[in-house]
Every structure is written in C-alpha cells, then in structure tokens.
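User: Hi! I have a protein structure encoded as tokens and I'd like to know what sequence might fold into it. I'm fairly new to this, so please keep things simple.
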C-alpha cells in the first residue's frame, strides 16, 4: 500500500526547516544515516538531501481541471455524487489504498454472483447528476484497480462500463460499452446498442451487440498489483461510423477501435454514466477473494496516471535542487528528471508539468514497476553530492 507521509515525518520536516537556522540537526532523529553508516549532518551543510517515499497527491491535481467531471478517491464520506450504489460486499475500507488510506473493496463469498456496483450520473442524464444539462460526446474514464495476489485462474467478468441513459426512459440505455474480463484474465471491449437500427433514432428493447474485441492486457500478468485503467468513448457523428473506443493500462494503449457506431442517429442524450461493477457471472469459485478500486476520474480530456510527489529535507540557504527517477536495473535507465528546480522548495511532483520523462518512456508511474530515485541540492557555495539511490515502493 502507498500511504501518506506519517504525521511525525511531516512535522519533523517542518521542525527541521526551522531548526536549520540555528544548526540543530533535527533530521538525525527522522532519517537513516545512509548506506555507508555515516552520521547524519546538519541540514544547513552541503550534504545530499534526504528524501521521503513518493506518495500519490490527494486530491489529484487533475481534480481541479475544468475538464474533470467526477473525481473520487474515497477518502471522505461525501457520497453526494454517488448516483446508483449497491453494496453487496462492495464498500469503502481503510488500510488498502493507492493513495491515502481508503478504497472501495469487493469481498466475494463462495458462489456469489450478484455483487456490488457504483455509478455516477452526469451531463444530460434524465435523472440529473454532476454538471447537469451538459452534453458530452467524448469522455475519458480512469480508475485504479487491484486483484489480491495469487488470484485463481477464473476472473469476475465485470469491471467497468460507460453508457447513455435514454432521454424518455431513465433506466433504459441507448448504448453501453463494457470493459470486461474473459475467464483467463484478458480485458475485452464488448459494446451494445439499443438504438433500433444502425442509423435509427429510437430506443428498442432489441439489443444489438456490436462484437467483442480482446485487448493486449492480461490481469494474470499483474499478480496483485495496482494498475491504472482508462477507457475513452468518442461517440459517432449521427448516422456515421466514425466513433472510437480506446483502453489504456498504465498509460499504454491496449485496445483501440475506430469506425464504431454506438448511437446511430440518436442525439437525445450523450455519454452520461460511468460505472464500476463487480458482478461475477457463474459465482465466485472461492470465498474471501478481494478486489479494490481507487482514484476514479471522469473527464472530457485524457486523464493519465495519478501524480506522485516527493518531499526532501529542508536546507538553509538553498538556491535550487534536482530529483531524478530511474528504473531499478543495472543501467539505472533514466525515467524522469526534474532538471534544476530554483528556490528553497522541498517538494516536487513527478509529472510532465514539473519535469521531463526520458525519450520512449510513458508518462506514468506504475506502482508495479521497480524504480529508484535520488536528488541533489545547492546553495550559493555550489551543488551537493547526489544522494544514494533509494528504491521506490
């Protein structure tokens, strides 16, 4: 689990910043001495900085963007945006989370088929919701998900979906796109339309399944790790076959379907529902299996992965500092570089807006990848040495 900075560490960093003015080495009580066992030094010297473990920003920076419709990390009890919720073993829990302390957990009983779900209504949904009366023809839906380690070979088929509820029938849908899982763990796209004909404008009970397509993502390969999943729906122009469905996993495209016709010529409503869903067709083969969701974002622009932030020890007279991130391999393959950060700040986001990802690197921090990071800092006297490489996660 990736947790917030402990209160003692946060308070200690503040105390260190203040004590640095008089040379009191408060950091000695908070940070380890380093690989060579040398004693800690006063924070106003040109020693290398001491770093915290990267943590997920909460709330995420994307939550304040104008493109964001829904932002939910389950850290508060505010459920005002929850439009349709069934617990059935699906509930907010503490102690298992991507960032912060809480997430949504589904725990299955033996043979359980009907399980929990959580849906958010927005835009032109006939029952209202977030940003009512707006129309969204292109929507991005990102969530983090984790199956417990040592999951059996059978997977619950349901994961997430987006859809459009029909304007004259609040619980009828014009179309629906499913992010589902085949029994062996492969993620698939499986859209369905309830518009009467490919270029029709009226609702029909006769579902038209548009054909499933397997992605390149297999949950078998994740072995209990968090993964950032994102789904895009770009509705077709009325009566045209120019819609698009795209899936990402940790920032990489794992499925891309063009030439889609989800809504025919129907224009009464657009994309207006995002839903996470844990139904298990056929029932869970083993009791006690758990899965988690966290950091849900619905937006009109690509969301990408969550933002991690790093804090460093304070330094009196600091003029700049620098943080670098690399793969934990023999070459220390570069991943991200803050480049020179001017001023006396003590934190930086590992993001495209705060630094540069190396050529060929996806701008995404994957909790399942082994990274190392280090930093240096400067005063008017010059730069310190680099800190020792520290392992992330």
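Assistant: Happy to help. Inverse folding works backwards from shape to sequence: for each of the 393 positions I chose a residue that suits the local structure. Here it is:
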């Amino acid at each position: 689990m990736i947790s917030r900075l402990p209160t003692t560490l946060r308070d200690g960093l503040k105390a260190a910043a203040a004590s640095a003015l008089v040379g009191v080495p408060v950091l000695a009580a908070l940070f380890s001495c380093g690989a060579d066992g040398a004693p800690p030094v006063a924070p106003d010297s040109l020693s290398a900085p001491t770093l915290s473990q990267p943590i997920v920003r909460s709330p995420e920076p994307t939550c304040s963007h104008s493109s964001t419709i829904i932002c939910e990390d389950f850290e508060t009890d505010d459920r005002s945006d929850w439009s349709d919720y069934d617990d059935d073993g699906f509930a907010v829990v503490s102690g298992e989370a991507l960032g912060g302390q809480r997430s949504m957990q589904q725990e299955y009983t033996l043979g359980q088929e009907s399980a929990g779900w959580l849906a958010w209504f927005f835009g032109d949904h006939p029952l209202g919701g977030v940003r009512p009366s707006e129309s969204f023809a292109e929507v991005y839906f990102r969530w983090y998900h984790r199956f417990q380690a040592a999951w059996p070979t059978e997977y619950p088929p349901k994961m997430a979906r987006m859809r459009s509820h029909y304007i004259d029938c609040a619980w009828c849908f014009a179309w629906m796109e499913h992010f589902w899982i085949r029994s062996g763990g492969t993620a698939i796209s499986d859209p369905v339309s309830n518009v009467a004909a490919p270029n029709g404008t009226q609702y029909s009970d006769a579902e038209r399944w548009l054909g499933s397509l397997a992605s390149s993502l297999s949950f078998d390969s994740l072995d209990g790790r968090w993964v950032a999943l994102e789904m895009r729906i770009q509705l077709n122009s009325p009566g045209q076959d120019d819609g698009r469905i795209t899936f990402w996993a940790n920032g990489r495209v794992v499925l891309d379907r063009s030439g889609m016709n989800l809504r025919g010529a129907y224009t009464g409503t657009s994309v207006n529902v995002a839903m996470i869903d844990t139904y298990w067709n056929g029932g869970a083969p083993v009791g006690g299996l758990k899965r988690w969701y966290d950091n849900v974002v619905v937006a009109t622009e690509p969301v990408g992965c969550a933002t991690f932030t790093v804090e460093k020890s304070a330094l009196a007279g600091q003029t700049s500092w620098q943080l670098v991130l690399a793969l934990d391999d023999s070459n220390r393959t570069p991943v991200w570089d803050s480049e020179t950060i001017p001023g006396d700040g003590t934190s930086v986001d590992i993001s495209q807006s705060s630094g540069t990802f190396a050529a060929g690197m996806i701008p995404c921090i994957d909790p399942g990848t082994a990274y190392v990071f280090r930093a240096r800092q400067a005063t008017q006297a010059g730069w310190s040495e680099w800190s020792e490489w520290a392992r992330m996660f």
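A useful reference point when you look it over: The radius of gyration is 24 Å. Feel free to ask if any position seems puzzling.
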